[in-house]
């Protein structure tokens, strides 16, 4: 008898199964929006698709008379720039600290408790401190994302490196490898796929910190725009912006996944179909 846990969908089946809940949510929204607009044609809480299409037209294709830029393009460029710099710095820092803390006992004893302590501090709680120290410019927003995701990523990577089988470390030293060579040839190749996975998991909190910082102090950005139009209950703009942010996040996740599978195929062995 074939057990349910051994049944695996094919590629088309996986795609269909993944789309079904999304389509169900869209259908549910359309039903609710239609019912509300039938009762009140001026309802702004659940805009109908035509109203959202008009909002997209305004934000994505018409230049802002004040700045001369298309709002969605300018907001996307500003947000992605902040996110890219912060995530890049976080990845580089995580790689260095995660490798050394995970592989070198003295570094682990020295920095491990500090990283563990910082990782449990709610990043949003330090946002006022960052604004005071770094001002209301770009630096405070980038630092918030960096502080928010880096400690957790470092702890994850250090734990992964520390779990490398002792036999591999001993064999490398037996063959004459120095500490640096062991780090470079044994730990680093095994740490990189994990770092990419950690980055994928950190994208969601990174977006949260970005939107939070932009909502409080910014004059351009996706989070800034959402909180700006919130004053006018402009759900016909807010919802497309949320969908656009979700789409960007999904594209980043898929790109990182593809990078990991392409560059480190050995870390993604095919699962047997039983």
TrEMBL record:
Location relative to the cell: Cell membrane
Membrane spanning stretches: 12-32, 83-107, 114-136, 207-227, 239-259
Recorded topology in the membrane: Multi-pass membrane protein
Keyword Membrane included in the entry's annotation: yes
A cellular-component GO term for this protein: plasma membrane
Keyword RNA-binding listed: no
UniProt keyword terms in alphabetical order: Cell membrane, Membrane, Transmembrane, Transmembrane helix, Transport
All residue ranges annotated as the ABC transmembrane type-1 domain in the record: 80-260
Domain of life: Bacteria
Region forming the signal peptide: none
InterPro entries for this protein: MetI-like, MetI-like_sf
SUPFAM superfamilies named among the record's database cross-references: MetI-like
Family to which the UniProt record says this protein belongs: Belongs to the binding-protein-dependent transport system permease family.
Protein's name in the database: ABC transporter permease
């Amino acid at each position: 008898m074939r057990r349910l846990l051994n049944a695996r969908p094919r590629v088309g089946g996986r795609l269909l199964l993944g789309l079904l809940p999304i389509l169900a949510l869209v259908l549910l929204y359309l039903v609710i929006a239609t019912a509300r607009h039938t009762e009140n044609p001026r309802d702004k809480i659940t805009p109908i698709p035509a109203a959202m299409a008009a909002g997209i037209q305004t934000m994505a294709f018409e230049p802002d008379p004040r700045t001369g830029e298309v709002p969605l393009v300018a907001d996307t460029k500003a947000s992605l720039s902040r996110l890219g710099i912060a995530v890049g710095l976080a990845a580089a820092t995580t790689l260095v600290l995660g490798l050394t803390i995970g592989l070198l006992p003295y570094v682990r004893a020295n920095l491990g408790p500090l990283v563990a302590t910082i990782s449990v501090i709610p990043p949003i709680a330090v946002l006022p401190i960052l604004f005071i120290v770094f001002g209301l410019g770009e630096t405070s927003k980038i630092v918030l994302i960096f502080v928010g995701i880096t400690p957790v990523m470092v702890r994850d990577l250090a734990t992964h490196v520390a779990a490398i089988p002792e036999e591999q470390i001993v064999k490398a030293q037996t063959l004459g490898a120095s500490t640096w060579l062991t780090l470079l040839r044994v730990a680093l190749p095994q740490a990189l796929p994990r770092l990419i996975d950690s980055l994928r998991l950190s994208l969601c909190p990174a977006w949260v910190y970005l939107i939070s910082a932009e909502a409080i102090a910014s004059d351009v950005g996706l989070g800034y725009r959402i909180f700006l139009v919130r004053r006018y209950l402009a759900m016909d703009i807010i919802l497309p912006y949320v969908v656009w942010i979700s789409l960007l996040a999904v594209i980043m996740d898929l790109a990182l996944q593809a990078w990991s599978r392409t560059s480190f195929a050995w870390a993604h062995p095919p699962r047997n179909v039983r």
